[in-house]
Amino acid sequence: MNEEKNITKESKKRIIMLCVIAAVVLICIFVPSVNRGVKDAFKVLSQADMAQIAEYIRGYGAWAVAVSFLLMILQSIVAPIPAFFITLANSMIWGWWKGAILSWTSAMAGAAICFYIARVLGRDVVRKFATEGALQSVEKFFERFGKQSIMICRLLPFVPFDPVSYAAGLTPMSFWSFFIATGIGQLPATILYSYFGGQLTGGAQALMYGLIGLFSLSLIAYIGKKIYDDRQAKKENAK
């Protein structure tokens, strides 16, 4: 009896989620102003240019905060670029601490949405938003580092946001474990990028990009080596 109730509950959640996604997609396709706005947003995000993103957000005037919030969510769900650029743009527009608050809260909202899409709709639907290869890479990372992997991924500015959130939703991990780990991992990175990113320009800004990129690559290489060493150790033990 309880199992039947759980199945019915899950089915209702799935139907509601599918209806919401279908409604959003239809609005984006058939409402001209929304359709243009989404296309413009993708165009700006795909260029991964902090100055252009900031100019785009400023163009909405009083609605700029809402547009930035929605851009971060859009980036979290489907855009294959890091949230790093939106975070820097927010700090340029509103200053480092206001920009950091906006970036952190909007990133958390996007992460929660991705998690629930995966948890309710499952892997087949998630593949529409994130590639199978990206999901498998993150899942292998989860196998090695567990919940800590979420915090590590959030600290890396050039790791796409959505595969991590989707992959977490496909695991037995509870939402609050995911949400807290995301919040803790995202907060110091957001503050750091907002504080320094909003103040640097020209060559100094390019240097910061380079150092962050070098740090990211170094950490990724270290993690990759750890995973490789673990696999080799398992093979040796199996012999």
Features:
239 residues, mainly alpha, 12 helices, 0% strand
Polypeptide structure, described:
With 239 residues, the chain is an all-alpha fold. It has helices spanning 2-30, 32-47, 50-58, 64-77, 84-94, 96-121, 123-126, 132-145, 148-155, 161-169, 175-197, 202-238. The chain contains 12 helices and no strands. The N and C termini lie far apart (47 Å). The mean pLDDT is 80.
Helices and strands in order, then pairings?
Layout: H1 2-30, H2 32-47, H3 50-58, H4 64-77, H5 84-94, H6 96-121, H7 123-126, H8 132-145, H9 148-155, H10 161-169, H11 175-197, H12 202-238
Helix pairs in contact: 1-2, 3-5, 4-6, 5-6, 5-11, 6-10, 6-11, 8-10, 9-11
Counting helices, strands and paired strands, the structural category is: mainly alpha
Helices, by number, come to 12
Span between termini: 47 Å
Count of extended strands: 0
Please, what is the oligomeric state? single chain
Task: Indicate the proportion of strand residues.
Answer: under 5%
Rough outline: globular
Order of helices and strands: HHHHHHHHHHHH
Main beta sheet strand tally, sense and closure: none
Q: What proportion of the residues is helical, as a percent range? A: over 70%
